[in-house]
Design a protein that fits this description.
about 525 residues; alpha/beta; Beta-Lactamase; Rossmann fold; 5 domains; five-stranded antiparallel β-sheet; 19 helices
Length: about 525
């Protein structure tokens, strides 16, 4: 059986602990790592904290006179509450950096009784030396997942901890009892919210032929008119439009359905935001089947977007199917002088439009040359590039010559479009139309981060199309890494992720260059890539 360390005196450990240590090392952590406080991810009032607070207070009172600590973390391993009757123990825990807002995920601090139960989805006792982080080795902790009894989703983890070396055999049964009480309160809260949402839905549905959808915790209701109107991809798109959005009281979203009909989603909060009532009404600004008039682009045109976001498709759509292509990646093979001469020859001759791909790879000297060619070009020209600061610095001479610029949003910023895109890709790869993506599968796809954008989505859809030639494609048909719903990231972590992705794109995937551009060491960049799950 594997051991967690080569140090003498440390006994072989259980497979769960050995696996947790292996993952910790793969994340590039060392044993002296300390929790990193994220000021943007402080504890907030959520359904979990509301359900757990009275239970934790009661449990803490039962533990009065002991140095036992109760810790509540959410599904992302972020600490949201800490309870301990002994003030000295609370100070000790705080001195280790364990405070509300800290994240104790395995990719941050290694094997522990918060992050590891989230990874393995079951309760786990972590004895002193079994912790990866040196500062935690003085504690024995038991962590137990908290699962919402209505949605069956992981809500968080309850951690109970005490000094290492003492008898902690009562920790697991005590924690399981507390978790059951929290889950019972989550069920009551969900039942109350569902009743309020049901009442609101019935009142709205009283008018015949009204297309109404109600979306709440573990509950989706729709009138017959809504069911007739919406395709499975539309159901997922509607949910993506309203779930997780912040708005006060009411909001309106515009959506084009699979049928081509343009509608407005009139969203009203129910039960303090625990549910949303959605009225689906025709968009009077766009008649059924009418598509927006395509504007003739100004020339030269710049198309900017992340890798895989459809830059080339957008550029060729604007330039025309007979457009010639000049790609800056060819500089590596041809050399700058030959590439520059070929490009000048193409732009200086009459003919169809020209697409100049990947200008982010051009050196300062080549940028100056291409700018000179553009000023006298005899053809219409479309430039493509990754987004980033380079468009305002090194490649600014090209940007200022463009009379129009199209910025393509990454897929993660237009999640409501993912269901229709996935269905369309499936239809293209399976012309017979004998397979379809279920609404739940489409919803899971829409919740993925998609760092590879459209190209990544197309690969996943092609993979499931090869797997199943007929019938419904259900969540279990998806590749393993795409079946789960990622925990919502804090705005700071999401911004950090986008900055790193943009830096990598600008550097053409060269991680050393990206690290230099970000002003961090290569090892720091590798750690953040692993922590943020950037491929």
């Amino acid at each position: 059986m594997p051991s967690i360390s080569a140090n003498p005196g440390i006994r072989p450990v259980r497979p769960d602990i050995a696996s947790a240590w292996s993952r910790s090392r793969l994340n590039g952590l060392d044993e002296n790592v300390t929790p990193r406080f994220d000021p943007e991810a402080v504890a907030v009032d959520t359904g979990l904290t509301r359900a757990a607070r009275p239970v934790l207070e009661r449990a803490s009172a039962e533990l009065a006179g002991t140095a036992v600590t109760l810790l509540l973390a959410d599904q992302s391993a972020r600490v949201v509450d800490i309870q301990c009757a002994d003030r000295a123990t609370l100070r000790t825990v705080a001195d280790l950096g364990v405070v509300a807002g800290i994240r104790l995920a395995e990719d941050e601090v290694g094997a522990n009784a918060v992050g590891t139960p989230i990874e393995i989805r079951r309760g786990l006792l972590v004895a002193g030396p079994e912790h990866f982080m040196s500062a935690f080795k003085g504690f024995t902790c038991y962590g137990h997942p908290i699962v919402n009894p209505v949605t069956r989703r992981l809500e968080g983890v309850l951690d109970i901890s005490g000094s290492a070396g003492h008898d902690h055999r009562l920790f697991p049964p005590f924690a399981r009892r507390v978790v059951r009480d929290i889950e019972d309160r989550l069920h009551l809260d969900a039942s109350r919210s569902q009743r309020q949402l049901l009442d609101a839905f019935q009142a709205a549905a009283a008018r015949r032929k009204r297309a109404v959808v109600a979306i709440g915790q573990g509950l989706v209701l729709a009138t017959p008119a809504a069911l007739d109107l919406l395709d499975p991809a539309d159901h997922a798109a509607v949910r993506m439009c309203v779930e997780g959005k912040r708005f006060d009281g009411a909001a309106t979203h515009r959506l084009t359905l699979v049928s081509g009909r343009a509608v407005r989603l009139l969203c009203v909060l129910v039960d303090d935001g625990h549910g949303v009532l959605v009225d689906i009404v025709p968009d009077q600004d766009t008649r059924r089947g009418e598509r927006p008039v395509r504007q003739v682009p100004g020339w030269p045109l710049l198309v900017a977007g992340e890798l895989g976001s459809g830059r080339t498709t957008a550029a060729r759509t604007a330039a025309g199917t007979d457009a010639a292509t000049v790609d800056a990646t060819e500089i590596v093979r041809l050399g700058e002088q030959v590439w520059a001469a070929n490009t000048e020859l193409v732009l200086d001759s009459a003919g169809p439009a020209v697409v100049v791909e990947n200008i982010q790879l051009l050196s300062e000297q080549m940028t100056t040359l291409l700018a000179r060619y553009l000023r006298t070009a005899r053809r219409k020209v479309v430039l493509t590039s990754t987004p980033g600061d380079h468009l305002e610095t090194v490649h600014a001479p090209l940007v200022v010559l463009c009379n129009e610029r199209h910025d393509l949003l990454p897929l993660r910023r237009r999640r409501h479009e993912i269901p229709q895109l996935a269905q369309r890709m499936l239809a293209e790869g399976n012309p017979g139309g004998r397979t379809r993506l279920t609404a739940e599968t489409l919803r899971i796809l829409a919740e993925q981060p998609w760092p590879g954008n459209l190209a990544e989505l197309r690969r996943v859809v092609a993979a499931v199309a090869d797997l199943r030639s007929a019938g419904d494609i259900i969540p279990s048909d998806l590749p393993a890494s795409y079946r789960g719903r990622p925990a919502p990231a804090s705005p700071l972590r999401q911004a950090e992720r986008e900055i790193i992705v943009a830096a990598l794109a600008t550097a053409g995937g060269n991680r050393l260059q990206a690290a230099r551009a970000l002003g961090v060491s290569r090892s720091t960049l590798y750690n953040r890539l692993r922590a943020l799950r950037i491929d």
